């Protein structure tokens, strides 16, 4: 609805109120409805309840407020004085926050900074006090207060206090009651307080009572009449609000008419001006009150003015301006009290009255009055207003009646007018009684129908009849969709428009609740509607929209209450019927199933024997598995006891040995046996994780060549130590970068290659990688590990991969290890969607093979890398990489220089830290997007630094890539568990190195497969069989930067020379930790510069120093010094120019 509807583009206003069944709320709404009609805008009255009211199920009612939205209204008017009754100021603000996207005008109370239409309580109370004091001379004036929470009640009390002070009337606190609710009972309690509790004597101790509202004054009037205390002779009584009942009680109550219709009119005018872009000059707009004088204050007929000459001639004189002022004043009074003022000729009454004064034969005034009264009777408007208008006109005209004849003529006209008004009132009262009786009969009949029906169709027929009886032109009933517990969707089940029922499917029409109606049912003509919730206690049912007909106070509320109760009962009955139908279906199905079961029992009986046979087979297999597990546990306990016995024995010997060298030897043996024990436990844990499904693959791009190189750099050294030849052959057609779990692939290769080296005494180890299958998205690779070792017996080959079989093999135990690696490898290969197998001849050798499926990495040329061609100078990177901050944590100068040279390509900001402690401090000062973290460093190593950074709140999401020369699976797993996101093993090469960094910075998957072009001007280097460094490879790696190659190799040799001196001193002082640390750093630098022999010697020094006496390390140190001399000589020869 609102402007969102394609069927009705008029402005639509919302009027929010907790109820409209009282005079005040109904008058506010009538005023807004009349003005909306004049301005051709739609109006929807949204009726909920007072928020947080403990006496009602207000939560259920107030869900209706959540349907108010910019999609169905363009602006809001709200009767705001009731929201603070059960809400704090903060809760009121929170309540109105749900309408933050809509302009709001409040009535009768100021909320936040919304423009407001307010009651001038000060003016009203002041008028009452002035009248009681100045006209009647009363000074002992009591005040019956309203509720403390209510702003108007508080303002009226404060105005009473100020008015007494203004007239210098002493304030008697006894005459002021405690705050109480707006109800007749408050008036009754006030009388009991004055007369019974305080024992006040009417006329002596208390002369007059001002009540905060007419409702309270009615209670005072009833109680005083019961006690036979005469109003106004014993106690005068006045009220506030000019309720209908206040003029029908005995005596009629003098009161303040707040012109309630005017509030709705002004609020609607203000909101429309705002929507049309017209600035509202005043945030607070006060409506002036009108003092209505009746008999309860002590006034009788207003005093007549003295006349100059009873016998003078008829002469009526009044100026045009004075006449126009009287007409405007009477018209304004009428407009404040009736919505039909635009159809009345109030001004004509004044002119006709003057005409009849001057022409006694004329009867225009009475004729015009009769026509106006007939209009009011047809429109059910308040006729009693004309009593006020006649009295007011009489007061205004009296000063101009200068002769007795004019006065007598005027009195005669006014008496005739009173007769006409009295007759019209009698008609109106009779008509009201008839309508009330008809309404009660209709409601009673409908209630009987609603209470007796359990069918939805009967309910809707009863509603249709009620709508016809009450002359309500339109009604739309919608129930919330039972499949949506948040009430966001509803189903229209009944539509009544233009006094007839419209077709709605039996399943209803589903629509978004916020739309209030399905699109096809939204009215095209201007409308005034009432939106009312349907609920039963705390159960939400839906809502109903009425096109407004007669506004008879509680009509709509009563209809919705009865409708909610009936709907609740019918919905429960429908649910029971549905449940019963489903139960019947289930019983029918059950009977069919029983028949089917009987048939199948016969069939299954013959199957039991077969099942028993299969069960027996399964039991046999289970027993075999249990036996195998028992054997496995026995073997594992033996394998665990063996190193434990060694450790305990060596510790006992160490305890009694005093020789230092022997102690070191035993410590080395203890360390060796402990490492075997850890390896065994790790493998058992891996098997457990795989079988329990706790190991999953983490697929990401990786460089296959780099992976194979890092494994080769470690295991080729191990092979050469045993005198074995080690080769690696890779199919050139295999992409360099693929997507898979590089860590698990490494684990399988390390297991199988390690076994091959372990069980081969002489000969060779050959590794081959081939491509077997390829599609547009995947590639299947075949890995073969061939050795010339001891081979495997034919009868053992089928069980070599079984979890509980291989560990008992005596040959396995003879050569060391547990033999669990093949079982782990099999299950990891299966996770990679591959197969594993072997071919072996005893005493000849074995070939273990496995396949694995990988995703192809998409080569991204834009936006990460553009214009990629086969030359050094065509690698360009986008400028947005310069926004990233990278921290390089590396203590070895050569590795620093190498990494910085590569990082320079990315144009990002790079800072350097020489150890973990410096890195942590720099990160705390200014966080980085990515950290390249060397693992082994002085002060604080990379693992500890990673843990510290991860514990910082700013370090949770920073990407950390480890840099290490340790390629073993256990080492890599340790670094990842410490919090690193990835690991780059040394030697790292430019393209894979940059691939990895770009991936972690951008979440893209770049693939830089750059093959350098041959530059005829590139220098050539000496070619020898055993060259100490591969300068051609390095020059390719550094994009042909000859000067950089010279500088970095020169820096490395100078640094290595200094570090060898440090190692020499450490050996002399028996500082094993320093020897291991420096040797590791040399190894990393040498690997990165392709000085493989120098790196291998450094690795040997690192390993030997961990397990043997440093005296054995001197020989390796001498080899390192000799190799460094050879390296320097080779470099000098090649860089002589």
From TrEMBL:
Catalytic activity from the UniProt record: ATP + protein L-histidine = ADP + protein N-phospho-L-histidine
Domain HPt intervals: 1041-1134
A cellular-component GO term for this protein: plasma membrane
Enzyme class: transferase
A family per Pfam: Hpt
Alphabetically ordered keywords of this record: ATP-binding, Cell membrane, Coiled coil, DNA-binding, Kinase, Membrane, Nucleotide-binding, Phosphoprotein, Transcription, Transcription regulation, Transferase, Transmembrane, Transmembrane helix, Two-component regulatory system
Family annotation (InterPro entries): CheY-like_superfamily, HATPase_C_sf, HATPase_dom, His_kinase_dom, HisK_dim/P_dom, HisK_dim/P_sf, HPT_dom_sf, LacI/GalR-like_sensor
Name this protein carries in UniProt: Circadian input-output histidine kinase CikA
Organism of this sequence: Natranaerovirga pectinivora
């Amino acid at each position: 609805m609102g402007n969102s509807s394609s069927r009705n583009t008029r402005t639509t206003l919302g009027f929010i109120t907790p109820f409209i069944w009282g005079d005040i709320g109904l008058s506010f709404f009538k005023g807004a409805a009349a003005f909306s009609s004049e301005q051709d805008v739609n109006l929807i009255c949204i009726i909920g309840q007072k928020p947080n009211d403990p006496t009602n199920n207000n939560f259920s009612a107030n869900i209706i407020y959540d349907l108010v939205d910019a999609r169905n209204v363009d602006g809001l008017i709200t009767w705001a004085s009731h929201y603070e009754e059960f809400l704090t100021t903060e809760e009121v603000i929170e309540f109105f926050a749900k309408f933050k996207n809509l302009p709001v005008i409040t009535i009768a109370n100021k909320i936040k900074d919304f423009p407001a239409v307010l009651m001038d309580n000060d003016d009203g109370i002041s008028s009452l006090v002035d009248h009681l004091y100045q006209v009647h001379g009363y000074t002992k004036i009591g005040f019956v207060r309203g509720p403390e929470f209510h702003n108007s009640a508080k303002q009226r009390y404060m105005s009473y206090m100020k008015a007494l002070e203004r007239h210098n009337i002493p304030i008697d606190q006894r005459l002021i009651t405690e705050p109480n609710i707006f109800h007749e009972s408050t008036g009754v309690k006030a009388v009991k307080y004055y007369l019974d509790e305080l024992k006040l004597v009417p006329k002596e101790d208390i002369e007059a009572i001002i009540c905060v509202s007419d409702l309270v004054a009615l209670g005072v009037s009833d109680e005083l009449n019961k006690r036979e205390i005469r109003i106004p002779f014993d106690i005068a009584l006045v009220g506030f609000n000019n309720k209908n009942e206040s003029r029908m009680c005995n005596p009629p109550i003098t009161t303040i008419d707040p012109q309630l219709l005017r509030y709705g009119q002004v609020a609607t005018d203000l909101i429309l001006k705002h929507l049309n872009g017209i600035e509202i000059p005043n945030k607070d707009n006060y409506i002036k009150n009108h003092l209505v004088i009746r008999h309860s204050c002590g006034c009788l007929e207003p005093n007549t003015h003295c006349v100059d000459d009873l016998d003078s001639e008829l002469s009526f004189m009044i100026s045009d301006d004075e006449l126009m002022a009287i007409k405007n004043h009477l018209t304004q009074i009428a407009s404040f009290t009736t919505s039909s003022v635009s159809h009345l000729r109030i001004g004509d009454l004044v002119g006709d009255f003057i005409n009849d004064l001057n022409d006694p034969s004329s009867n225009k005034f009475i004729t015009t009055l009769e026509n106006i009264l007939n209009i009011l009777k047809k429109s059910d408007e308040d006729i009693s207003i004309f009593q006020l208008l006649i009295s007011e006109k009489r007061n205004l005209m009296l000063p101009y009646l200068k002769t007795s004849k004019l006065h007598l003529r005027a009195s005669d006209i006014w008496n005739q007018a009173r007769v006409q008004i009295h007759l019209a009132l009698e008609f109106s009262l009779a008509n009201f009684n008839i309508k009330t009786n008809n309404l009660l009969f209709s409601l009673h009949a409908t209630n009987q129908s609603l209470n007796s029906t359990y069918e939805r169709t009967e309910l809707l027929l009863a509603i249709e009849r009620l709508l016809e009886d009450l002359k309500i032109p339109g009604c739309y009933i919608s129930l919330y969709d039972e499949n949506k517990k948040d009430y966001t969707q509803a189903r229209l089940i009944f539509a009544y428009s233009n006094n007839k029922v419209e077709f709605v499917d039996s399943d209803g029409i589903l629509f978004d609740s916020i739309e209030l109606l399905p699109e096809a049912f939204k009215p095209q003509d201007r409308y005034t509607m009432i939106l009312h919730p349907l609920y039963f206690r705390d159960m939400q049912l839906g809502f109903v929209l009425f096109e407004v007909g007669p506004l008879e106070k509680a009509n709509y509320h009563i209809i919705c209450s009865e409708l909610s109760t009936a709907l609740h009962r019918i919905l429960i009955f429908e649910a029971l019927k549905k449940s019963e139908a489903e139960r019947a279906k289930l019983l029918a199905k059950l009977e069919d199933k029983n028949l089917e079961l009987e048939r199948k029992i016969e069939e299954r009986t013959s199957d039991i024997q077969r099942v028993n046979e299969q069960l027996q087979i399964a039991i046999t297999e289970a027993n075999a598995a249990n036996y195998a597990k028992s054997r496995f546990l026995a073997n594992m306990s033996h394998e665990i006891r063996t190193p434990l016995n060694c450790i305990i024995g060596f510790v006992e010997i160490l305890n009694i040995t005093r020789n230092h060298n022997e102690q070191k030897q035993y410590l080395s043996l203890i360390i060796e046996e402990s490492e075997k024990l850890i390896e065994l436990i790790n493998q058992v844990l891996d098997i457990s994780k795989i079988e329990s499904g706790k190991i999953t693959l983490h697929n990401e791009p990786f460089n296959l060549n780099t992976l194979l190189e890092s494994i080769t750099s470690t295991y080729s050294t191990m092979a050469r130590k045993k005198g074995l030849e080690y080769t690696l052959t890779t199919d050139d057609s295999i992409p360099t970068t693929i997507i898979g779990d590089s860590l698990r692939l490494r684990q399988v290769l390390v297991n199988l290659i390690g076994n091959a080296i372990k069980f081969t005494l002489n000969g060779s180890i050959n590794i081959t990688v081939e491509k077997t299958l390829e599609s547009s998205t995947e590639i299947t690779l075949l890995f073969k590990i061939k050795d010339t070792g001891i081979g495997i017996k034919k009868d053992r080959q089928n069980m070599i991969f079984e979890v509980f079989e291989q560990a008992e093999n005596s040959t396995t135990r003879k050569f060391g290890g547990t033999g669990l690696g093949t079982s782990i490898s099999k299950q990891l290969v299966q996770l990679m969607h591959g197969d594993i197998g072997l071919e072996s001849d005893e005493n000849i050798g074995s070939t273990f093979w496995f396949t694995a499926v990988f995703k192809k990495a998409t080569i991204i040329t834009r936006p990460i890398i553009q214009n990629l061609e086969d030359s050094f100078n065509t690698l360009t990177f986008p400028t947005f990489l310069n926004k990233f901050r990278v921290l390089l944590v590396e203590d070895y100068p050569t590795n620093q220089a190498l990494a910085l040279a590569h990082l320079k390509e990315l144009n990002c900001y790079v800072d350097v830290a020489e150890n973990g402690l410096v890195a942590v401090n720099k990160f705390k000062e200014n966080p980085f997007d990515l950290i390249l973290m060397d693992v082994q460093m002085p002060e604080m190593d990379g693992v500890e630094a990673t843990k510290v950074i991860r514990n910082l709140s700013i370090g949770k999401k920073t990407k950390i890539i480890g840099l290490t020369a340790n390629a073993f699976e256990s080492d890599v797993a340790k670094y990842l568990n410490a919090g690193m996101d990835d690991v780059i093993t040394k030697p790292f090469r430019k393209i894979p190195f940059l691939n990895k960094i770009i991936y972690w910075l951008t979440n893209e998957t770049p693939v830089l497969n750059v093959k350098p072009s041959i530059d005829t001007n590139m220098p050539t280097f000496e070619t020898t069989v055993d060259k100490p460094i591969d300068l051609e490879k390095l020059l390719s790696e550094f994009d042909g930067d000859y000067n950089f190659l010279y500088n970095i190799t020169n820096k490395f040799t100078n640094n290595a020379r200094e570090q060898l001196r440090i190692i020499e001193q450490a050996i002399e002082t028996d500082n094993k930790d320093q020897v291991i640390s420096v040797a590791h750093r040399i190894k990393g630098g040498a690997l990165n510069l392709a000085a493989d022999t120098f790196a291998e010697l450094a690795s040997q020094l690192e390993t030997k120093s961990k397990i043997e006496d440093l005296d054995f390390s001197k020989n390796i140190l001498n080899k390192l010094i000799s190799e460094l001399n050879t390296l320097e000589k080779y470099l000098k020869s090649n860089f002589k120019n």
